[in-house]
Specification:
Radius of gyration: 22 Å
Strand order of the largest sheet: 4-5-3-6
Order of helices and strands: HHEEHHEHHHHEEHEEEEHHH
Helix content: 40-55%
Number of strands: 9
Largest sheet: 4 strands, antiparallel
Length: 294
């Protein structure tokens, strides 16, 4: 998908509700009453995290917003929520590095405030206050971004773009940055001078915007260590590897291959793993293929 500068976005300098309604694909009356149609279902996912899922009507509009926002130019180091970028491409950026500082932003979406979303549309998109307020209401719930919304990942970046650019400015020219939602990875072919100080500098930047690092999940890795970033392992030999827990699920899955549901899971795991290690598990792949062909 071809990207364009922010001033080419349909949202840019949108100053009236009639135009905004047309952009979103709704009637002007629907737009005026949009607040009455915002509903979310709250549940806990498999990882034990609270998810707020919007109703289908709002989700469709959020998806439209996400599609249009997704066409705006983004830095190469932003890897989350973008077509053709993933946790795997995120790890690929660091493949040639030896030293890693891996950081985690604490309760990221929960601390992404509606005010910053509003400011993005008002100041960066140069929209009118009423149109900016409408979009901020559509994109947030209870005054913050939520995990179940299809627009949250990209909106979180653009709403806090200045914060991430400030973090990027702290790095040396030989250091590589990537941001995957709430995961920040900094790597280098050379040892990172005083990673503890850099970590606290980054934390200071985050705090200016109402965020902070999860210090317990933040770690510095040396040249001889295996580094796990966004679900992919980078070896000391600069090779991408499938994590051991994922390997175990594949090995265990071959013993349950008679179960149709487990067979589907196995196929998915093999497909995912092959994107990281193309030659992984050739025997299991052959068995799985034969069963599906039969």
């Amino acid at each position: 998908m071809k990207e364009y500068s922010i001033n080419q976005s349909p949202f840019y300098k949108c100053h009236n509700k009639k135009k905004l309604a047309k952009i979103l694909g709704v009637s002007i009356s629907e737009l005026r009453n949009i607040g009455k149609k915002i509903y979310y279902r709250e549940f806990i996912n498999k990882k034990g995290r609270i998810v707020y899922e919007p109703n289908s009507y709002i989700k469709k509009i959020q998806s439209k917003i996400n599609d249009l926002i997704g066409r705006i130019e983004k830095p190469y180091w932003l890897q989350g929520g973008i077509k053709k970028r993933s946790n795997i491409t995120n790890s690929m950026l660091h493949k040639k590095s030896y030293y890693f500082l891996i950081l985690d932003i604490k309760k990221f979406f929960e601390n992404c405030q509606r005010y910053y979303v509003y400011l993005f549309f008002k100041n960066k998109m140069k929209m009118s206050s009423d149109c900016s307020n409408i979009l901020a209401d559509i994109c947030t719930y209870n005054g913050k971004l939520v995990t179940g919304s299809p627009s949250s990942v990209l909106i979180s970046f653009f709403s806090y773009e200045d914060m991430f650019i400030n973090i990027f400015s702290l790095l040396d020219t030989n250091q590589v940055l990537s941001v995957y939602v709430d995961d920040i990875t900094i790597s280098s072919t050379l040892p990172i001078v005083d990673p503890h100080h850099l970590k606290h500098e980054i934390n200071s930047v985050l705090k200016k915007y109402g965020h902070s690092l999860n210090l317990e999940k933040s770690k510095y890795y040396g040249k001889l260590e295996f580094k796990k970033i966004t679900g992919v392992v980078v070896s000391p030999k600069n090779e991408l590897k499938v994590p051991n827990d994922h390997r175990k699920k594949i090995v265990d899955g071959i013993n349950k291959i008679d179960n149709i549901g487990e067979r589907s899971k196995l196929s998915g795991r093999l497909s995912y793993s092959s994107q990281i290690e193309p030659n992984i598990f050739p025997t299991i792949k052959a068995i799985n293929k034969k069963i599906h062909d039969d």
